[in-house]
Amino acid sequence: MSENLIETVVTKSDLKEAFTELGVKSTDSCMVHTAMSKFQYLPGGAETIVNALEETLADGTLMMPSEVSTNCDPATWEYPPVREDLIQVIRDSMPPYNPETSATQGLGLTPEYFRNLPDVVRSTHPYLPIAIWGKNAKKIAQKQPLNMPFGIDSPLDYLYQNNGKTIFLGTDYETCTMLHYAESTIHRKTEIDSAATGIDENGKTIWTKYRNVDMDSYDDFNELGKAFEAKYPDEFKSLKLNKGIIKVINLLPLIDFARQWFDQKDHQFDNAID
How far apart are CA 78 and CA 148, in angstroms? Predict the structure, then answer.
C-alpha cells in the first residue's frame, strides 16, 4: 500500500459543523491561524478553509496575519544572517511594501490565498499587516498605526474591544498573533525597527523607522497557553477533526491573562518601564 494513500478527508461541511459545535457565531470577529497539512486532505485546500470561515462568519469579521517577514532591516536577520558587505545592497533593492502585491511570507498557503481575494482588505503596516474580510474591514485596516502596529487602534485592538475569538486550525499558541497585542499594551520597553516603504528619485529603497516592542522576548507562548487553559477551562473549546485539532478561544480572558503573564516576566528580566 502506498505511503501517500489519502486516509482522511475534511470537507467544507465538516469545518462548518465543527465551527458551530465550538460556538462560533455568524456575528463573531475572529483571528484565524491555519496548518492545513494537519487535516491531511481538504478538497479545495485553502479555498475550502476560507469559504467555510466566511460562510460561518457571514455577519462578522475574519482576519488572518499577513506579515511580510523580509521587510525588515537585513542587518537583524538571523535565519540566515547576511554577509556584512551585502547588507546595504539588500537595503537599496528591497521592494517597498505594497498591500496589493507584497506576498505574505512564512505563514503557509491559506493566509496568502486569503489576502489575494478581491473582497479582502489588507492593513497598512509595511512589516506586520493584517488581512481582513467582512464587517468594518476597510475601517479596521486604515486605522493600523505605524508605531506599535499590534497595539491600540490596531486590528488586534478591534478584536479585543469587540469580544473576538481566535481560531487554531491545526496550530497552537506558538502561532497566536493576539498574544503580541498583550505584549504591546503593557509597560514593556520599546525599540526602533524599520521597513521598506517607498522608492527615492535614484531608484533606491526608502526605509521608514517605527517603534515597537520586542515580540521575541520569551519563547513561551505554548507554556502561557497551557497555563491559561488550566486556569480558565471554560474560555476555550476544542475538538479533533480526523487528524487535526480545531480550537476556539475567547480573547478577552486570554489577553488579560497574557498581560499579567508578560508583565511579570518583563519585571523579572528588566524589560519593563516602571
Answer: 23
The pLDDT tens digits of the residues spanning 97-155 come to: 999 999 999 899 999 999 999 999 999 999 999 999 999 999 999 999 999 999 999 99
The residue written with cell numbers 511594501 in the block is: 97
- Residue 186's SS3 state is coil
Sheet holding 130-134, edge to edge: 121-122, 130-134, 61-65, 29-34, 165-169, 244-250, 236-241
Contacts of 37 (CB under 8 A, 6+ apart): 170
Per the CB < 8 A criterion, the answer to whether 119 and 84 are in contact is no
Grid-cell match 500500500, residue found:
1
Q: How far apart are CA 32 and CA 186, in angstroms?
A: 24
CB atoms within 10 A of CB 238: 13
Give the pairing type, strands 29-34 and 61-65.
Answer: parallel
